[in-house]
Amino acid sequence: MKYDRKTRAWFRREMSGKTALAQNMDLLLTTLLALFASYVWFLSRLQSQSLAVLLAIASGGVVLVLLLLWRSMRLDAFIRSYSAQLHSKALLEHLLLQTPESIRAMIESSLSLSGSHQIGKDLFINRDCLYGLIQRHPNEPYEASELLRFYQIAQAHRATMLQIYATAPPSDDARALAEQFSTAAVLHEPEELIAIAGHADMLPEEEVVKQALMQSIELRQKSRAKIGKRMLLPGNVRRYLYCAAIIALASFLTGYRVYYPIMAALCVCMALVSWYLGRKSTANQEASSKTQNVNS
After folding, report:
1. Is 116 left (phi over 0), alpha (psi -120 to 50) or beta?
2. DSSP 170
3. Using an 8 Å Cβ cutoff, are 38 and 59 in contact?
4. Less crowded by CB within 10 Å, the N or C end of the chain?
5. Sign of torsion, CA 71 72 78 82?
6. Looking at the whole model, is its pTM more than 0.90?
7. Cα torsion at 202, 94, 81, 189 (round to 10°)?
8. What's the alpha-carbon Rg for the chain, to the nearest Å?
9. pLDDT tens string 14-57
10. Per residue in 90-108, pLDDT tens?
11. Residue 101 contacts residue 122 (beta carbons within 8 Å)
């Protein structure tokens, strides 16, 4: 699946945890370091400053190209992995909305089970094996207490095996508890349920999955944008100024006359930006209100 430039930039920030400016600064500093190291090495070997400069520039260019290529390969691998996770989540959310009866029929058909006896809406028994279904959101692992209920039912029906299919992974406690059961328990991963649904043709169309995937990405982008806007709300002006005053006072008390003033200046800048954006927003609202009054 191809993504536009803006989405790839968002993926790059998710991968590195840094802004585009910080990423480019890292790239620049690494290239300059390679350039300087190459210059020193060539100068010690050739005893010619001009030739050493040319070779160092060439070496720095090669390093830059290799870094860009490596970063692009890492980003492509991250996008594939991240997209696969979102793709799997979208499919599981689709199965989450299906009825337990349809999921049961899907499992029976895929495993070629016949003569099953339904015990409840989320479990059935076939021969000596009890099959259980847990429908939970993919982000919420099911707990040991849920697994214990299936185990107790398996014991009551003298089942020799317990198989659990779920739209969410088991929690660590559930995995640990399953190892203590006297009845053999198999906790199937959500991906196995997706594979069964694929064989039963119960998965949504690929275009629907792509739309859900893009909606998930857009939602995360908007969430990050909201965090940035909250940092620059007009109500934060006083907080930033108080913070700047405290840091400036701390610089005199501790003797750190470089880093603390820089941080204080940064707080003042944030206060000014918040004040300016608040004033601009108020002016736009007043202009919009006047326009509406004139039209009315």
Report:
1. beta
2. B
3. yes
4. C
5. positive
6. no
7. -70
8. 30
9. 788 777 778 888 888 899 998 999 988 888 888 788 888 899 89
10. 788 888 888 888 888 888 8
11. no
